[in-house]
Each structure stands twice: as C-alpha cells, then as structure tokens.
User: What shape does this take?
Amino acid sequence: MRVIGQKQYTEQGFFAQDRGVTAWHPFCSKNPLSTTMRHQAKSAKMKKKILIVEDNLDLTYILLRLVENAGYDSILAVNGKEAVEMADSQIPDLILMDIMMPEMNGFEATRLIRENPKTRCIPIIAVTAMSSAKDRDECLKCGCSDYMSKPFTPSQLAATIKKHLMAS
Assistant: This one.
C-alpha cells in the first residue's frame, strides 16, 4: 500500500478520508479515473496478491507453490465463507476459486464478492474439477472472470493469471 496525501492506494483501489469518514474507491475499468490512479498505485512496485480458495490441502500446497514461484504474494482460504471475508479485508488482485467446498461453495462466494463494492472488480478464476460445458457456463454466469478445469498445467495457470492481472 502506498500513501499519497490522505489517500492510501492499493492496486485494486484506494481509501480516502473526508470529514472523518474513510471510504473505499475500487478501480474499475468503467471508471475513467481508474487508469491514472492505478498507475500511481503501481509506482509503489507492489507485488500482486492472489487469494487461493481451496479446501483440498494437497492442491492448496501446489497452487501456493505455483503462485509464489511466479512472483506473486498469496493468501489462503479453505472455504467460500473465508474467501468472502478475506477478499473484503485483504483486497487481493486476483482470486483462484474452487467451486465445490464445505460451508459455502464457490458459486455463492463469487456472488457475494461481486455484490461488495470493494471487491466487485477483482478477477475471479474458477479452478474446479467440474469439467462440462454446462459447469463452465454456470461458473461464468455466477460472476467468475474465467474458468480452469482440473487438472491443469503450471503454464496454463500462469498464462491465465497473467492475462487477468494485465487486464485489471
């Protein structure tokens, strides 16, 4: 996070204080001011932060290693409920979202993340064992930015992450 005057910038948006009230302002492609503000935030040379949401510990470890070896910071959640909380509190640059999880599935977590003004612009990539065309359509319909079916190669994951981080 970079502080400029009364504003604290992250690559997803900034916090600004006015009359004692702190407000979150996300960078969205629909906001014409976002490009300039995003460049100010990027000048801080921050590492991109990826939220990994996965309930399988073995796959969590693999995703964690792939993400960190690609030069990104990572944070972890083991279910959809934790994902919603972590997205709101940590404001990651991208989310890798499993779909079939206990407590709250990835569909519901994605919908809640999209409803929150602070988190609605974060790219969400569904990473799931569900592999039919219907499953893909359902992931995209609930608000996922992209879809990857397990198993995938490290290069496929890296390319998908890079594509969405460059677009955001």
The domain at 49-167 is CATH 3.40.50.2300 (Rossmann fold).
